[in-house]
Amino acid sequence: MTIGYLGPVGSFTYSATKFIFPSEMLTPFQTIVACLKGVELGQVDYVVVPIENSIEGTVNQTLDYLYHYSSLPIQAEIILPINQNLMVHPNWKESWKSIKIVKSHPQALAQTQQFISEYLPNTKQEITNSTTEAAEWLKNNPNECVGAVASKEAAERYGLSVVNANIQDIPNNQTRFWVIGKDQLHHGKFKSQIQRKTIAVEMEKNKPGNLHKILSTLSWREIDLTKIESRPLKTKLGDYFFLLDIKCEDLSLINLALEEMSTLGAKIKDLGCYPVYLKK
């Protein structure tokens, strides 16, 4: 079995992938869209992609592609603790406060703005495709006084010096990752925390009370929502679909709620019912 992930080796997605697929062959992709297209085209059996961070919220690229372009279901979720670290090439370990540029993935930079503004207020922030790409750049450019925000695994892999650890704005920083694939994933090694179901709902007409109608089908049945979010339909300004994460405790009851939504004029895309695994 071959597993695709948002790479390269040492990225947080790589850590999540190794957690749930410790012995499988792993294939990195440079972008989220490339990951999802890879599993659609049969290049890999499953892919692991980020969907939400506790600081920065939804990874819109993942959600929008799955809603607009893909019919593949979610097969599992991994929740991974995220610890961001500032690192430099060992040549600059003693003078890290003089760095003028900090490189990283936009999510990592967004998660560490308080630290950067306090300790490196005059640095320029440059975006890379992944945190690991930023770390690799430091390794290949030892004479450049530049920092990177990435994982400790990336620092170890590329021989870098971590000059400040755990610099994320919120200590309890976590990211959700989805495992996407055509076939149901049978994973007996871990015990899931909960079963979750994710649906996307679009109403036929944009009218007042649409969201209330959707939620009422769940509330009177006492179905527990863990997340609700609106996203643009990409048709015209003001048109949205709603993403709902539902605690999957009584699937028959949920199916009745979905039938009622359809009767009320909702177009529903079922993204899957799946186990959630938490990496300690």
Automatic annotation (TrEMBL):
Residues 199-275 form the ACT domain. It is an enzyme of class 4 (lyase). One of its GO terms (molecular function) is prephenate dehydratase activity. GO terms for cellular component: cytoplasm. Coiled coil: none annotated. Keywords: Amino-acid biosynthesis, Aromatic amino acid biosynthesis, Lyase, Phenylalanine biosynthesis. Its EC number is 4.2.1.51. One of its GO terms (biological process) is L-phenylalanine biosynthetic process. Pathway: Amino-acid biosynthesis; L-phenylalanine biosynthesis; phenylpyruvate from prephenate: step 1/1. Pfam families: PDT. Residues 2-182 form the Prephenate dehydratase domain. The record marks 175 as: Essential for prephenate dehydratase activity. It comes from the Bacteria. InterPro entries: ACT-like_dom_sf, ACT_dom, Chor_mutase/pphenate_deHydtase, Preph_deHydtase, Preph_deHydtase_CS. The keyword Transmembrane helix does not apply. This is Prephenate dehydratase. The gene is pheA.
